[in-house]
Amino acid sequence: MTADAKVSKQQALNDFNAVYPILRDEMLAEVKKYNMPENAYNWFKESMDYNVPGGKLNRGLSVVDTLRILKGSSITEDDLFKARILGWAVEWLQAFFLVADDLMDQSVTRRGQPCWFRREGINLVAINDSFLLESCIYIMLKKHFKAESYYVDLLELFHEVSFQTELGQLLDLITAPEDDVDLNRFSPAKHQFIVIFKTAYYSFYLPVAMAMMMAGVKDEAAYNQAREILLPLGEYFQVQDDYLDCYGDPAFIGKIGTDIQDNKCSWLINQALVKVTPEQRKVLDEHYGKRNAESEAKVKEIYKELDLESVYRVYEDQSHKHISSLIEQVDESKGVKRQVFYEFMNKIYKRTK
Q: What protein family is recorded (predicted)?
C-alpha cells in the first residue's frame, strides 16, 4: 500500500515514536528466550526506556525523511515502517555511545536528567548496559532485514560507523583529558578529525546511507557524493554546537555551556590558539580547563579580544557557500537527490539552539 509522501512534522514524530515500544518489546522477548531472572529483565527494560527515547530524534527521523525524498509517491507503508526501524537502530547506537561517553567523562546530567550511571545502584554496570544497547541493533537488523538484498551492507555500515565514532572518541579522550590540561595537544586539524569521526559519520552519513540502501541505490559514486557533502555538514553542525556552548542563551539552548571548564578541544579554543599573542596565550594556559567561573570569564575575555564571534560568522558563511556548491554538483542520475542535502542544510543553517 502506497503511503502519503508528505506529512506534518508532528505526525512524522508521532509515527516514529509509535515504533519504539514495538522494538523494545521485541528486545525483551529475546531476553525472555534465555529465561533471564525477572530482576535482570526489568533492569534491561529500564535501561532501554531511560536511554533510548527522550532525545531530539533527529538522526532517526532523518532516515525516514530521506527515504520519503528518494522514493517520493512510490513509498509504501512497509517502506516507512522499515525506515523507522532503521531510524530507531541509529537511536539505539546513539544511546550506546552516550551511556559509555557519560561514564568516561564522568558527566552529571544528560537530556535534563541524571546520567544513567549516576542512578542509585548502577555505576559501572552501565558499561555492560551500553554493550547490551549496541547488541540490540544487530537483533533488530536480523529480525527485520535478513531477507533484504542490502542486509549485509547494513551490517557492514553499522560496524564501520561504530569503529569510526570510537576512533573519534579515542582522539578526543587523549587530546583533552579533563584532569590534564595541555593546550599544546590542541590543533584545528585534531578538532576536525574528532568532530568528523565522533559526530559526522553516525549523525549525518549513517541515516542517509541507510535510506539510500533501502531505495535501491547501488552506485558507489552516489555514496561517495553523499559522504563528501554530509561530513562537512556534520563538521559545520559541531562547530555550531561549540559556538553555542559559549555564546548561546542557556535558557534557549536548554543547557549551560561547560566546554571551557571541561577542557574541551572545541572550535573556539583552537581558533583562539591560532590568533593569540604570547600574553593572551599565557592567560589561556593558566585558566582554560579550570572549574571555576573566574577562570572561565578570563578565557571568554580573550575570546572577546580576538573577536571570535566575527571569526565564526565568516566561517559560517564560507561553510554554507562551500557545502551549497557541493550540493549543486550532485549527479542525480546516480540515485541520490539534491533535496536530501538541502533539507539537512535548511535544518541547521544559522540555528540558534
A: Belongs to the FPP/GGPP synthase family.
What are the residue ranges spanned by the domains of the chain? Answer: 10-147, 149-347
Give residue 253's pLDDT: 45
**10-147 and 149-347 share one CATH topology?**
yes
Give the mean pLDDT of 88-103.
95
Q: Say which of 15, 45, 81, 105 is annotated catalytic.
A: 105
Q: Is 179 a catalytic residue?
A: no
Which SS3 state, helix, strand or coil, does residue 258 take? coil
Check pLDDT > 60 for residue 254.
no
Give 47: exposed, middle or buried? Use CB within 10 Å, 0-12, 13-18, 19+. buried
Residue for grid cell 512524522: 12
Distance (Å, rounded) from C-alpha 317 to C-alpha 320?
5
Considering only the top CATH level, what class is 10-147?
Answer: mainly alpha
Give tens-digit pLDDT for 33-86.
999 999 999 999 999 999 999 888 999 999 999 999 999 999 999 999 999 999
CATH of domain 149-347: 1.10.600.10
